[in-house]
Amino acid sequence: MERRNFLKGLALLAACPLCVKTAYAAEGVHWGYDGEEGPEHWGSLAAENSACSAGSQQSPIDIRGAIKADIPDLAADWKSGGTILNNGHTIQVKAAGGTLRRGDKTYDLVQYHFHAPSEHSVDGGNFPMEAHFVHKSAETGTLGVLGVFLVPGAANSTFANLAAKFPRKPGEELPLAAVDPNGLLPSSLRYWTYEGSLTTPPCSEIVDWMVVMEPVEVDPADIKKFTALYSMNARPALAGNRRYVLSSS
Q: What is the pTM assigned to this prediction?
């Protein structure tokens, strides 16, 4: 624990601008999801990406063997609106604000974005998509990321409204009006939690991960609107390295 806190402190000092930049990714270094710029090479693309290959608490992981525990309940209170951006790696919404409470800890919502297929897997199985809601603790500066799995099914008005506005060109950014991110949450916020990293370069190990157990149904046609832009933008699962994954009891 002391080692992790020490490393987390160093990472936050080194990457503090990262906390306010909505991309939460290495800038100035081109990276991708296949070939010589794919995940297996991220650690060698730039010195600041060394955690991608040398880190011991990398994300995502395959969630299995979780330990049931008395972990704090989650409560989200996110504001509608913001802007929607195609950043060249995903579709990302710069949030209008709001909070995620986890017991007595509060995180501020900064941005949310999408991956296809899901980055986290459960017992070896992936989901068609995963949404990541990226928060920052105002007190500590650490990040709290809430992962929500998206599966084909009934239409979801929030995702449908976003899909209708997906910018097609990298760098293109559009305003959002009354798009409510709370609509991307399931009825139950039971979750798994573990200590991990950003899933994109520089892969800093500064993230408290919370992955919601219940997936959210969205229209298959809306999933296709995303995969038409990004058919595969998921980092493969990494070794757990004896980390404990706790689950809501």
A: 0.90
